[in-house]
Amino acid sequence: MSLVLATDDTGGPEIFASLQGEGPSTGMPVAFMRLSRCNLACTWCDTAYTWRFEGDNRPHRDGETFERKANQITLELSDAAERIAALGQKRLVITGGEPLLQAGKLAELLELLPDIDVEIETNGTVAALARLDIRVDQYNVSPKLAHSGNDPELALIPERLDAYAIDPRAYFKFVIAEPEDVDEVLALQRRYRFKPGHVFLMPEGTDSNTIESRARWIADLCLQNGFRMSDRLHIHLYGDTRGT
Question: Which domain holds residue 81?
């Protein structure tokens, strides 16, 4: 049994240790594993190399496509588990792409890592199998707003958002590019009754200047609406690079 992962700059699997850069665990030392493939296509996605392969015509603002063979790697579960354990971290963040597309294989992987806390970053459209769900300590759910370019019927699935809204492990992280984006967040909060303190606004951007500029007015919107704010710490520390 194997997983399909994204590659780092050396062509190896994107498994690495770093500080979590976003959401409620910001600043925490963790192991990261980035899986390949996604069922959505955000126009501003900063990991388009996980899904926008040659022949994929879904829009992206950079217009760049990636060679699948150079950006995707298959890894046996035992190999992945050994690489994660060797990093010596107490917490694992599984990201993508959309990692829950490989939920069954992830469940088997985590059975090989019984003592590690698990955080999954998801777009909120896919359900975790029960066998996987029981091993997850935190979900970072990032529903996609209109500016992502995704069809809302594909990106905002009521059944899934209802389920995450009542799950105490779920936090909601919204990517914000313009002040008007927060109107959508407020509408979703009213519809799904997200828990107080579980909603984060995060500036869209892949460089420190853009993030800091947007953070100034996002901070005011967080104060006005009782939301929490998420930085993108890894961008400030390492830039927009793989394996960080």
Answer: 2-238
